[in-house]
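Task card 7
Instruction: Convert sequence to C-alpha cells.
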Amino acid sequence: MKILALFTLMASAALAPVAASAQTASAPAAAATTTASPETLAALEKLNSEWLTAYKTRDGAALDRILADDFEAIYPGGRILRKADLIKTATNPARTVSDIGWDDLKILVFGDVAVVRARSRIVGKTAEGDFSGRNDYADIYVRRAGAWRAVSAHVVPVTD
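Output:
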C-alpha cells in the first residue's frame, strides 16, 4: 500500500519534474532543468554507484545502508525481492560479478521522493555458469530523517 501511495505521489508530481541526467557512469549528473540542489543530485548519484558496486564487491553493509527496511523490488519474470533477499543474493560467495556498469543515468527529484533511472550491464558467474545481461531500472528513493533510502526498484531486461 505504501508503494502505491508513493507511485500516486510521483504521478501527481510528474507534471513538474526536477531532472538531471548523465551519459556514462563516470560522468557526473548534469542538471537539465532543475531546482534540486547539486548536493541532492550528487548524493543520489553516489547511492546509485554504491548500490551497483556493492554487487561486485559483495558489500552487504552498503546495501543495508542504502535500502530501506521496507524495500521491495520487482525483477524480470515478476520476482519480488525484499531487502534481505537482495542482500543475500548480492553477497552470495558462489556468485561473482566481474563487471558491472551503467549509463543513461537520469535523476528525477520530487521533494522528498526521487527516481534514479539508468541502463545497467552485468557480467559474472554462478555455480550454474557464466551470465551476462543488460537491464533498464528505476529505483525509488525517499528522504527520511534527512537521508535518502531506496524503497523500491523495478528492473526490466533489455533485449535489443
